[in-house]
């Protein structure tokens, strides 16, 4: 069977819930531990981040900008997913993990009120917001099946970036580049949550929403794609000339800032202390002391784009098998990949062997692709 035929055959297979039973059992145990510590009998999950994590990748959204169309009550007797009546058939057929009880409420009903009432306990459930810190800690250490899904997504997204950016030309517009990325991300079964692009005429913007401007001599593209709940983040640069000495110097120095961040991302490190190190790294590598203020620096990744962003107030502790996306940036430069901290060190997930790299502190890091 040819590769084309194999791919087509796979696409005809019906979708099934992506969750792995072994991973889900561990996640349920983690939530029960939260209930034990709080002295409560149930917990109501209502955000997309918490729901997709606990359900191990089920899609519980319709609009990417809207609230989830489901809520889940975890109690000591089981898991109860409540959704609107017009969503129930799809949820049951394609998104419902084994062992989760499905309940419905009319499309005009109160989803959270209905979910709070389906459990066996007469006491009100613990609200997700009241267990936000504990839930974030429960999400930190990725489990085997979700780590495999994340690695697969990262490699696909990196390959998409290589394919699309390699075909770009100076007269390609930012919108054309972003739309090509969007089409490929959706074709891969993922959701393009963020697509940014700027050409040489708009290189000062750190969050460059695309326009009709042509790319010109140099361009950057940023993509954040979600599949099975997990979000992979990547930034890549291209240019159509040799670049200036100043550009090449800044590119090397921002990679050195990132290398210092990677060196600090070790088990037991606290995010606020890593963040303090980031501030010092900008100065150490020849950037202004205020550069950390011009854009967020990234942080833990996974079921949220950053979970959480690293700041001086973030005291979460780094653990093994946790994922991160750090994204230091300076004037006209930025570097960003999704990585996972494993027992053998940092593993880059958003990697395509076709993209040019330079070795920085023993790790291959992407450089600007010259076309």
Automatic annotation (TrEMBL):
SUPFAM superfamilies tied to this protein: Creatinase/aminopeptidase
Cross-referenced Gene3D superfamilies: Creatinase/methionine aminopeptidase superfamily
Keyword hit for Cytoplasm: no
Keyword Protease among UniProt keywords: yes
Keywords, alphabetical: Aminopeptidase, Hydrolase, Protease
Pfam families hit by this protein: Peptidase_M24
Peptidase M24 domain: residues covered: 160-342
Molecular function terms, GO-annotated: aminopeptidase activity
Region (Disordered): 1-22
CDD domains from the UniProt entry: APP_MetAP
PANTHER family in UniProt: AMINOPEPTIDASE, XAA-PRO AMINOPEPTIDASE P-RELATED
Protein name, per record: Xaa-Pro aminopeptidase
Protein's organism: Pseudarthrobacter niigatensis
């Amino acid at each position: 069977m040819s590769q084309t035929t194999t791919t087509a055959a796979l696409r005809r297979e019906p979708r099934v819930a992506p969750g792995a039973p072994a991973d889900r059992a561990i996640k349920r145990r983690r939530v029960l531990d939260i209930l034990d510590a709080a002295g409560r009998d149930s917990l109501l999950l209502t955000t997309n981040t918490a729901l997709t994590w606990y359900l191990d990748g089920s899609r519980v959204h319709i609009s990417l900008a809207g609230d989830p169309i489901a809520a889940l009550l975890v109690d000591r007797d089981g898991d109860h997913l409540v959704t609107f009546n017009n969503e129930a058939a799809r949820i049951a057929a394609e998104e419902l993990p084994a062992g989760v009880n499905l309940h419905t409420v009319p499309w005009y009903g109160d989803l959270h009120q209905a979910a709070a009432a389906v459990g066996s306990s007469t006491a009100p459930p613990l609200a997700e917001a009241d267990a936000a810190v504990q839930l974030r800690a429960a999400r930190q250490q990725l489990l085997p099946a979700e780590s495999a899904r994340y690695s697969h997504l990262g490699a696909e997204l990196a390959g998409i970036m290589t394919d699309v950016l390699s075909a770009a030309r100076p007269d390609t517009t930012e919108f054309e580049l972003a739309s090509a990325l969007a089409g490929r991300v959706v074709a891969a079964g993922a959701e393009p949550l963020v697509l940014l692009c700027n050409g040489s005429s708009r290189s000062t913007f750190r969050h460059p929403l695309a326009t009709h401007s042509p790319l010109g001599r140099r361009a950057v593209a940023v993509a954040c794609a979600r599949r099975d709940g997990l979000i992979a983040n990547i930034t890549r640069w291209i240019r159509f000339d040799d670049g200036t000495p100043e550009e090449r110097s800044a590119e090397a120095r921002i990679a050195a800032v990132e290398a210092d961040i990677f060196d600090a991302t070790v088990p037991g490190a606290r995010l606020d202390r890593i963040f303090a190190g980031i501030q010092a790294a900008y100065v150490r590598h020849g950037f202004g002391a205020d550069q950390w203020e011009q854009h967020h620096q990234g942080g833990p990744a996974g079921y949220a784009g950053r979970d959480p962003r690293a700041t001086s107030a973030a005291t979460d502790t780094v653990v093994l098998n946790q994922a991160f996306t750090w994204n230091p940036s300076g004037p006209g430069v930025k570097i960003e990949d999704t990585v996972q901290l494993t027992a053998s060190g940092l593993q880059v997930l958003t990697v395509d062997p076709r993209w040019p790299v330079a070795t920085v502190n023993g790790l291959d890091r992407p450089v600007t692709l010259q076309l």
